[in-house]
Task: inverse folding
């Protein structure tokens, strides 16, 4: 069975289709941000389906803005985080897509514990709830976010459940429904 | 007596008549939170047609219904809301716990999921399955109807206790749930 035929080509997982585009783009990106890119993983060479660019926190915003405006990766598919239990502890993950070529790319920003990063809402308005979810699940704070509060868990919840040190069965039972902030009803 | 001499009446106990009326006119409240809710809709629709057995009028207000069908996973955040809905229903009221998630938490033994709705409210009939087939839910309905006819449900037991122990301070028997 040829596994490659099972991968849908329209969704940007084709090294054959996008390999040259990615190589050219990564070369020009590295020329522009040579000092800010820590590591580059490419499909075909490394165990990944998409190119992964590890970017330093200091240039993350200008880097993503360049990808969005110059290389037309204008669609923020997903924004999430991973608790790697390394030093630095967290990885902020961005999945971007170019709606014209349908090529995808993955950007990672490493953050240590209690480290803050500026909000990405000026670039993508859709980052609002994604950042709230990252804050809820991992406890990563975004400076400049207009409404950074929990989105999934109860507001009385202690801890951040997707951190690896949170116990899997760490139930927190509340007998009353979640209190509503009266400011939100105005 | 009618003209041909046959008797037009029969004697029974009032409780039996009331139970017979109750079991054949259940008003379900569909608390469908996930895929079990799809099977619940299928059971209510024309293919399986729960209306044939009296559970015809689906009400979305707890004030107007007497059978809570909890179909699907109940998160810890949802559990107080479910309890609130149960408290708002008027007695006599019955609960069917449909599916593995509602009955025991199912595969989701994690920080965010209630490990069975019987930790927050009394359940009369459990339906196993993930999700249960419509036949399973219909079987649970028949089982509940038998229990109502015999007066064995939690709600009717509470009613009996109140009647028998009128001198004692009324305990509604709502202290349910078991330690896990």
Result:
């Amino acid at each position: 069975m040829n596994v490659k035929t099972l991968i849908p080509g329209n969704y940007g997982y084709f090294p054959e289709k996008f390999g040259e585009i990615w190589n050219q783009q990564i070369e020009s990106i590295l020329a522009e941000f040579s000092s800010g890119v820590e590591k580059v993983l490419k499909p075909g060479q490394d165990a990944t389906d998409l190119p992964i660019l590890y970017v330093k926190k200091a240039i993350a915003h200008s880097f993503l803005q360049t990808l969005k405006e110059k290389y037309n990766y204008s669609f923020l598919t997903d924004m999430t985080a991973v608790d790697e239990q390394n030093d630095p502890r967290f990885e902020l993950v961005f999945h971007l897509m170019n709606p014209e070529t349908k090529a995808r790319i993955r950007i990672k920003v490493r953050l240590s514990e209690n480290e803050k990063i500026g909000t990405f809402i000026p670039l993508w308005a859709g980052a609002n709830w994604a950042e709230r979810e990252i804050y809820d699940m991992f406890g990563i704070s975004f400076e400049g976010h207009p409404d950074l509060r929990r989105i999934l868990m109860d507001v009385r919840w202690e801890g951040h459940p997707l951190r690896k040190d949170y116990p899997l069965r760490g139930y927190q039972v509340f007998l009353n429904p979640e209190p509503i902030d009266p400011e939100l009803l105005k | 007596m009618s003209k041909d001499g046959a008797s037009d009446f029969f004697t029974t106990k009032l409780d039996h008549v009331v139970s017979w009326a109750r079991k054949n006119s259940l008003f379900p409240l569909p608390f469908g939170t996930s895929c079990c809710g799809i099977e619940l809709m299928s059971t209510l629709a024309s293919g399986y047609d729960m209306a044939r057995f009296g559970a015809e009028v689906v009400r979305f207000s707890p004030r107007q219904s007497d059978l809570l069908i909890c179909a699907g996973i109940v998160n810890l955040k949802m559990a107080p809301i479910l309890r609130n809905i149960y408290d708002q229903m008027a007695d006599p009221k019955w609960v069917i716990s449909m599916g593995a998630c509602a009955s025991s938490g199912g595969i989701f033994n994690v920080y965010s999921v209630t490990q069975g709705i019987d930790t927050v409210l009394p359940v009369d009939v459990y339906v196993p399955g993930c999700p249960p087939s419509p036949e399973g839910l219909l079987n649970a309905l028949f089982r509940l109807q038998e229990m109502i006819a015999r007066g064995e449900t939690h709600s009717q037991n509470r009613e009996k206790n109140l009647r028998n122990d009128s001198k004692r301070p009324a305990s509604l028997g709502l202290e349910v749930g078991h330690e896990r």
Summary: The first strand of chain A starts at residue 37 and ends at 41.
